[in-house]
Design a protein that fits this description.
The chain has one domain: Rossmann fold (3-Layer(aba) Sandwich). The chain has a six-stranded parallel beta sheet, with helices on both faces. Helix 4 packs parallel to helix 5. Helix 4 links the parallel strand 4 and strand 5. It has six helices and six strands, in the order E-H-H-E-E-H-E-H-E-H-E-H. The chain is globular and about 40 Å long.
Length: 175
């Protein structure tokens, strides 16, 4: 069984930039999983610091309106990994999931950590690179010219542990 993990599509992140393209691709993947009646699990990051836009109870921590209607199952987390001290593994086990697909935010933190954690737990993992986004920039890392999404995708791909696809490849291989 396959399941889709939709990571941290929350107001505090989505409203920090222009993510129309990423949200559009996320919606297409979600609709494909919904049509196939495969599990879709949304993950919400909640911070303990009141200054954070993802502080529990803050408007920024809520799922973004563009995809919120698709969120039937929600897992809450407090670290970059959707597996650490959450019930995600148990949920996936109950659904007999063997293969997870990952989309959402932030590419280089929560999406990447969740992908690696899923692999470590024995799941087959597909990371849909262009259906992830990040609020960070090359300047955030003081690395001019860095394409964060491409860098993370390349590292995961070269690992030979995690399948990395763009949306068009996903359509060719799985739709």
């Amino acid at each position: 069984m396959e399941a889709l993990l939709v990571i941290d599509v929350q107001n505090g992140i989505v409203e920090s930039g222009d993510f129309k393209s990423e949200l559009s691709l996320m919606k297409l993947v979600i609709e494909d999983f919904k049509k196939k009646e495969k599990p879709i699990i949304f993950v919400r990051h909640l911070d303990k610091e009141q200054e954070s836009s993802l502080f529990e109870g803050a408007v920024g921590s809520e799922l973004h309106h563009s995809l919120k209607a698709y969120a039937e199952t929600i897992v809450e987390k407090r670290t970059p990994s959707a597996f650490f001290e959450t019930g995600l593994s148990e949920t996936l086990d109950k659904l007999c999931v063997e293969h997870v697909f990952i989309i959402g935010f932030n590419t280089e933190f929560c999406c990447m950590f969740t992908a690696i954690s899923a692999f470590d737990r024995g799941y087959q993992v597909t990371f849909i690179e262009d259906a992830t986004g990040t609020a960070n920039t090359a300047e955030s890392y003081e690395m001019p010219g860095l394409d964060i999404r491409d860098f993370v995708g390349t590292v995961l791909h070269w690992s030979d542990a995690i399948e990395v696809l763009d949306y068009e490849e996903y359509v060719e291989n799985y739709k």
